[in-house]
Amino acid sequence: MSRLRLKGLLEKWGYEVVVCVDGKKAWGKLHEKESPRLLILDWLMPEMEGVELCRKLRKNRNKPYEFILLLTSKKEKSDIIEAMEAGADDFLSKPFSPDELKVRVAAGKRILELNDKLVNSKRSEAMLEMAVNVAHEVNNPLSVIKMNAEMLMNNTNKTDPDYESLNKIKENTKRIAEFVKNIRNIRSHKYNIDPQTGTFRKD
Question: Which residue, 55, 77, 110, 160, is the most exposed by fewest CB within 10 angstroms?
């Protein structure tokens, strides 16, 4: 299947396609800021073979995960093993039908989506850990502020303008304390992080 035919099929299926004529140009393209993440590589590319490009991509790659589908006329079991060891996620032997390519590419897209959800979930957990630490630091001085406000209110006449100000301080500290309590409830597993969305849900 030619590059032009492959590009036409992928665009027909709704994908945005970037074509590189050889492995070296593909390597350069993948170092750009907005580089593709679902890669279809031919084993026998000029300048740099697909398997070599796989190895280079998997070595010290500081970018979001890329799904690699390797196309080749090779069919031996040893070739499949070599491709997978090099870092390919899937392997498609030529000749192949458009339908076979379509389901492999769709599977790659799903894997990338699941990977992104997992990354977002871990990021949410890290943010939660930081929020819990802040809540712990806030809780003690908050109790002191509330206690002092109540003590001053007990020594202030209700008709005094300061009494209303102290009451507002007391009510605000109660609201903040409730917020802190909710954060601590999340950490104590009364809430969990939804792995599909990365958001918090109540058990």
Answer: 77
Nearest Cα residue to 108 out of 202, 180, 41, 203? 41
Per-residue pLDDT tens over the stretch 124-160: 666 667 766 766 677 777 777 878 888 888 888 888 8
Residue 150 gets which letter from DSSP?
Answer: H
Range list of β-strands (E), 121-187 = none
Q: What is the CATH number of domain 3-96?
A: 3.40.50.2300
Enumerate residues 6+ apart whose C-beta is below 8 A from 13. 102, 105
* Nearest Cα to Cα of residue 28 among 57, 71, 8: 57
Domains of the chain, by residue range, sit at: 3-96, 120-202
Q: State the distance between the two ends of the chain, measured CA to CA, in whole angstroms.
A: 51
Confidence label for 173 from pLDDT (cuts 50, 70 and 90): confident
